[in-house]
Design brief:
By secondary structure, the chain is α+β, with helices and mostly antiparallel strands. About 40% of the residues lie in helices and about 20% in strands. The radius of gyration is 18 Å and the shape is globular.
Length: about 250
């Protein structure tokens, strides 16, 4: 039986059906190496919870995940969080609260309606929007040099998040022009099985919002306040996106 890392994370999050979960449980009992790997994943998740403010960063409850998976992309009422101009400076605190915001979003309803920043993020990921510049992180030197790229493009102090501990390596930084606010930056990460996670950043041009939904096989997470708009895209479960999103937000803070 072949089990991908993606499916192991879904198993840990309790997102598999009973039959598949039972199969993996039996396999873990017979394969100590695989069982140890799962325990490593659980330990990593627990460390993230401690770093980013557990219990707020616990895995999403199964009933919330079910609502996300079964969500219909139709306009509904939207819970709109409002943050101060200092939001980027307290990104660590916001990251610790991301799952609380997602919980409130589910309670009040969200909107998967298209807006400019989501369309741009999808176009950037799909390579239908051409970058003005591509920075190869392998030749960009120290992390400080990568951070300077973000600073110059967006005119704000940001840090390119290090997501290595949760399985994603920064592969490229792409800069786009001609968008609201002047420029945008896409941070492109690669994980196991060559999975791609992208973090699209620019100045906001629409109301503050927190939203999580699925579009064309991609999990889409948008968190936008009055300082910065961010859209994260990846082929992953809702629980994994919540964890990666939390780490990414925290990592943006210098």
């Amino acid at each position: 039986m072949t089990i991908s890392e993606h499916e192991l994370h879904a198993f840990i999050d309790g997102e598999l059906d009973e039959d598949r979960s039972a199969e993996i449980t039996r396999l873990l009992a017979a394969d100590p190496a695989l069982a140890a790997r799962v325990e490593d994943f659980r330990s990593d998740r627990n460390r993230l919870q401690q770093i980013y403010g557990a219990p707020e960063t616990r895995a999403l409850p199964s009933e919330w995940l079910e609502q996300i998976e079964n969500r219909v992309e139709a306009p509904v009422s939207r819970f709109v969080p409002r943050f101060s101009r200092g939001a980027v400076g307290i990104a660590g605190a916001l990251a610790a609260s991301v799952l609380i915001f997602l919980g409130v979003w589910l309670a009040f309803g969200g909107s998967a309606g298209e807006d400019a920043i989501i369309a741009e993020a999808l176009a950037a990921r799909g390579d239908t929007m051409q970058p003005q510049q591509v920075v190869d992180v392998q030749v960009s030197g120290l992390p400080e040099a990568r951070n300077q790229v973000l600073d110059n493009a967006l005119d704000m102090k940001l840090k390119a998040p290090d997501l290595a501990k949760i399985g994603y390596q920064l592969a490229a930084i792409r800069i786009y022009s001609g968008v609201p606010g002047g420029k945008a930056v896409e941070l492109r990460y690669r994980g196991d099985e060559n999975r791609v996670f992208t973090l699209y950043l620019r100045h906001p041009s629409s109301p503050a919002r927190v939203d999580l939904f699925q579009r064309d096989g991609l999990r889409v997470c948008i968190w936008q306040d009055d300082v910065i708009g961010t859209v994260m895209l990846g082929q992953m479960s809702a629980g994994e996106m919540a964890r990666v999103a939390s780490a990414a937000y925290a990592g943006l803070n210098l």
